[in-house]
Specification:
about 625 residues, alpha+beta, Heat Shock Protein 90, Ribosomal Protein S5, domain 2, Rossmann fold, 4 domains, six-stranded mixed sheet, 22 helices, elongated
């Protein structure tokens, strides 16, 4: 059969172009990535052989072999794992079959080729081989199949696939034709040093074939999580994290624990210090692998780690599950449920320690994963008591982040609720018109800018018997929270007297008439100090931001009418009130009412309903102001 030439997926071509042009200072990471892939292939076959022992009957000892050939300038990395069929070679090596590909390519391009750390994070470690090789040849035979296959490419946009008579009996051999400037990776001691640094934790031997055929095992070849913690260095933990998490950042938190008693298992879990690329993938999968007595079972065990802890990376090794357990029945297994519950408890306890003992360090975690952790407040009712003390917020009264407990400790006398506002950007929320009256009275408002905030608040309801209250609701009595700041009152003392004489009630009545079809009501506002108008939700309706989100996601067909509040102390409102008292035309009042309503909508981040009409009204008002009409 003749070789078949195929084109790389577009994103792969972009990636290879970046790799080819960028000679990273840490090019040795290619070996770590290829050894890691080989280890995974052996793990997969070990699991398959539980039910199909014939797959490994002739070769039951798994290993990874490095074979440098200085004369030919070739380095081979071989494994006797699961191997790949023709279709698997095309799919696994010709595409990046994971979400976030475009984001990865963009980030790598933005880095200008200076950060090798991005390669592993996006699950494209195989392509790092092109950092050191002019040509990559992969021969593979899938366990249990007769035909072997060869994949080859020079990284220039295409690859070939053909039948291979020289494929290994089982597994994969990667043959790298090294560049002239990569000869160092043919030196046995250089290879040994790289393996000791990056792959010592790999739980099967990494063997170097030296001149004359002598074999040397380069790594410890035992599962890191089975070793006593006292014997493991920080560097070894970090490299193992790189292995399981496919990242290059330093773990923010390491949790290594052996549970004994009714259920026995060992867990080695990591919290990253940087967001994984797929953190917000709809699948919400954690990067935790399940082993049974050191044998890999799956990296997709649904009941092991909840979606709201999906930032976790690591392994869990159980002594109580049967080796032949089906992946399909794992999530219904009571042992998995008990292990999962214990893992959640331990992780939350460790996060609590960090939050209390290293609050500045905890800020790093919260900025990365706070939005994910808050999903647990909505989903896991039994964990809310543990989660609520961990939650942090931006606020109108303090710099940085604050906890709910600290907020409650600062509540004003007479304040019986925790006030908050939800939206898409904390900075914009801090400038929202609805916040003005609270700020003027020194009442703190929490700024919630994560999409989950609108949902968990409805589920939780209160903290320490203090209910959560949105400042965009129309039923808040600000007078019960005290007077505005003295400076503000003094500055507006004269304005207040004028306001008392202004026919505000007449203006409100005129606005109600003009906006009868578009708003639920028009009324005076106690919450505004600087803005002329704002929109608020009636008690019986959805919070405004929640309603917008539901409508955007096709979960809601209609939009509730809002209440338009007007600021009786604002110069524009007083002037309009005076015009109404003097008998202003209905058209002028209607135009002003519609323009102010559109202004309130824009302040909420909502579009103007009728852009053409908005422009016409604005032009008319400007004409009157300039004396042109």
């Amino acid at each position: 059969m003749a070789a078949e030439t195929l084109a790389f997926q577009a994103e792969v071509s972009k990636l290879l172009d970046i790799v080819a042009r960028s000679l990273y200072s840490e090019r040795e990471i290619f070996l770590r990535e290829l050894i890691s892939n080989a280890s995974d292939a052996c793990d997969k076959l070990r699991y398959e052989a539980i039910t199909r022992p014939e797959l490994t009957a002739e070769d039951a000892e798994f290993r990874i072999v490095l074979r440098p050939d200085a004369k030919a300038k070739v380095l081979e990395i071989s494994d006797n794992g699961i191997g790949m069929s023709r279709d698997e070679l095309v799919e696994n090596l010709g595409t990046i079959a994971r979400s976030g590909t475009a984001a990865f390519v963009d980030r790598l391009a933005d880095e200008g080729g200076e950060s090798p750390s991005l390669i592993g994070q996006f699950g494209v470690g195989f392509y790092s081989a092109f950092m050191v090789a002019d040509e990559v040849r992969v021969t593979s035979r899938r366990a249990g199949e007769m035909q072997g296959w060869c994949w080859a490419s020079d990284g220039q946009g295409a690859f070939t696939v053909e039948e291979a008579e020289d494929a290994p009996a089982r597994g994969t051999t990667i043959r790298l034709k090294l560049r002239k400037d990569a000869k160092e990776f043919l030196e046995p001691e250089r290879l040994a040093a790289i393996v000791r640094r990056y792959s010592d934790h790999v739980a099967l031997p990494v063997v170097l074939i030296e001149d004359g055929g002598a074999e040397r095992v380069l790594n410890t070849a035992s599962a890191l999580w089975t070793r006593p913690k006292s014997e493991i260095t920080e560097e070894q933990y970090t490299e193992f994290y790189h292995h399981v998490g496919h990242g290059f950042d330093t773990p923010w938190l390491v949790m290594h624990n052996k549970a004994e008693g009714r259920i026995e298992y060992t867990s080695l879990l990591f919290v990253p210090s940087a967001r994984p690329f797929n953190l917000f993938d709809p699948a919400r999968r954690a990067g935790v692998k399940l082993y049974v007595r050191r044998i890999f079972i799956t990296d997709d065990c649904e009941g092991l780690v909840p979606g709201w802890l999906r930032f976790l990376q690591g392994v869990v090794d159980s002594e109580d599950l049967p080796l032949n357990i089906s992946r399909e029945t794992l999530q219904d297994n009571p042992v998995i449920a008990r292990i999962g519950k214990a893992l959640v408890k331990r992780v939350l306890a460790e996060l609590k320690k960090k939050a209390e003992k290293a609050p500045e360090d905890y800020v790093v975690f919260w900025d990365n994963f706070g939005g994910v952790l808050k999903e647990g407040l909505y989903e896991a009712g039994d964990q809310r008591e543990s989660l609520l003390p961990l939650v942090r917020f931006r606020s109108t009264e303090v710099e940085g982040q604050t906890s709910l407990a600290d907020y409650v400790s600062r509540m004003k006398e007479g304040q019986d609720a925790i006030f908050y506002i939800t939206g898409e950007d904390a900075e914009a929320l801090a400038r929202s018109p609805q916040v003005e009256g609270f700020r003027a009275r020194g009442v703190e408002v929490l700024l919630m800018a994560d999409p989950i905030d609108d949902f968990w608040i409805q589920a939780v309801g209160a903290f320490e018997d203090k209910p959560f209250r949105s400042v965009t609701r129309g039923d808040i009595d600000l007078s019960a929270l005290g007077a505005k700041a003295e400076g503000k009152d003094a500055a507006k003392e004269d304005e207040a007297k004028t306001t008392e004489d202004a026919p505000i009630d007449g203006l409100i009545a005129a606005f109600r008439l003009a906006l009868a079809d578009t708003v639920k009501d028009v009324r005076r506002s106690e919450r505004l100090t600087d803005s002329s108008v704002c929109l608020v939700a009636d008690d019986s309706d959805f919070d405004m931001h929640l309603e917008r989100m539901l409508k955007q996601h096709k979960q809601l067909d209609t939009t509730s009418k809002r209440i338009l509040e007007v600021n009786p102390d604002h110069a524009l409102i007083r002037a309009l009130a005076g015009k109404v008292a003097e008998g202003a035309s209905a058209d002028l009042v209607a135009d002003a009412a519609e323009l102010l309503l559109d202004q309130a909508r824009l302040a909420e981040g909502e579009p103007v309903r009728d852009v053409t009409a908005f422009g016409r009204r604005l032009a008319k008002v400007m004409e009157r102001g300039l004396g042109a009409a």
